[in-house]
Every structure is written in C-alpha cells, then in structure tokens.
Amino acid sequence: MDAAADTPSDVAFHIDVLRREGGLLADAAERAGLDARVPACPGWRVRDLLKHLGYVHRWAAGYVAEQRASWVDRASEREILSQGPDDDALAGWFRDGHAALVRTLQAADPDLTCWTFLEAPSPLAFWARRQAHETAIHRVDAEQAAESVAPGQGFSPAFAADGIDELIMGFLGRDANRGSWDGPLGSLGFHATDGAGSLAHWRVAAAPGTFAVSRDPGPADCDVTGSAAGLYLLLWNRRDTSGLDVRGEPGKLAAFREHFHVTWR
Description:
Blueprint: H1 11-32, H2 46-66, H3 77-82, H4 87-107, H5 123-145, H6 157-178, E1 186-196, E2 199-207, E3 210-214, E4 222-226, H7 228-235, E5 245-248, H8 250-259
Parallel strand pairs: 1-4
Antiparallel strand pairs: 1-2, 2-3, 4-5
C-alpha cells in the first residue's frame, strides 16, 4: 500500500485492506498446515483460527446484508470450534466466507442502518473497519503459526495507527463511557513515531473512580514509543516490547496488557 494514499476514514480503504488481509491469512494458513499451533491463542491450531474467523466473517456480513437492528446471539467459541467443515473443505470454506463479506460490504447502501458496538461515522464504516482489523490481526496469527520471518509486514503506518485508535478510543473508550474499567491504576502513553495528525499519540489513565482515554501526547507513568505497526501489534498482544522505547514504569504496561480483553458487546 502507498501510505500517502491511505484514508482510514474511507469505507473503501478498509474494504481493500480486508480483501488483502484475508487472502494473506489464507495463504499463510495453508503454508502452516491445519495442525500448526497459533502462538498468540493458547490451545488453538490453525484449523481453529480458520473456523473462528470464518464464523466471524459470516456473523458480521449478516448484520450488513440483513440490516439487523439488534444483537443476535453468537455461538459460543466452543461451539464454533467444535463444528464447521472437515479439514479438507476448511480452507475453501474460509475463503468463501471472506469473499462473501467483501462483496456484502462493497454492495451495501452507505446509508444502511444496523446494529454496531462501537462509535463510528456510519454502521457500514464500523463493520468495514472492524473486520479489516479483525482479519489483519488474525493474519499475523497465521503467519506466526507458519513461522514467517517477519509476521505483520505490510501494515502501512496509517492503517496501524487507525488500529491503535480503534482499540484505545473505541474499545477502551467504551469502557470509559460505561465506567466499567476494573483494571490496574495508572497512566500509559503510546506514541507512534510515524503517526500523523491526531493519530500519533494516545493516553490511557485510570485512577480510583475514573478512567479516561485521549489522543494526548502528555507524559504518563509509562510511555511507549515506536512505529505504529509495532505499537499496534503490542496492544493486540502479538509481539513483545523489543525494539520499542519503554520509559517510566514498565509494570504498568505489563499489568494493562494482562488485564485488557476485547469484547464484542
């Protein structure tokens, strides 16, 4: 991708990323083999990764295609992993579901209304962005399972910074609005050396009775600086801090990473 041409607020941008990342994931899964372990997901093999994401792609497409106005219960992870196609059909099943999601998003009315779970300019923008990042992070999982030399290559600074923003301002911002943070106290700063504009600095601050997130360059108890791609993978627990500049109290970062888990509601 040409970083100068990236426009993360554009639905078409996220659909293009989704298309590319799904193809790269499927290729990496085939290189790894269905029995290969997925390091970032303890207990998972590559077949579990394909079943999980193949289900999520179909689940997401249903909200857009059918304009579902409310939450539809998902199958449990145990049910998803215990069902699905046999091994010989799994790769094709995954590719079919991924392609169908891309087509659904491309054909959708920009003004459609449906259920979402994070703030976004529109429901279509939400689903395109969320599925692009969901697929990109799991592409890294497939590459790690295949023991690729440099998993995660190819994330432009703009896309990686957008992913950091979704996680901090979206998922953690939702926790802040709900007052539902029950994790460690203290403040963390994340600084993307190749970020641009408002997508270069983020701050997470938790104190007794308060929790807030912001796009703020100010100092924190622990400040982490590096490329947007490096921070993106760190925050999604797909890499460690090697090569990143960690200053202040690293225990704050470790406690945060151990506690924070993404949820879909």
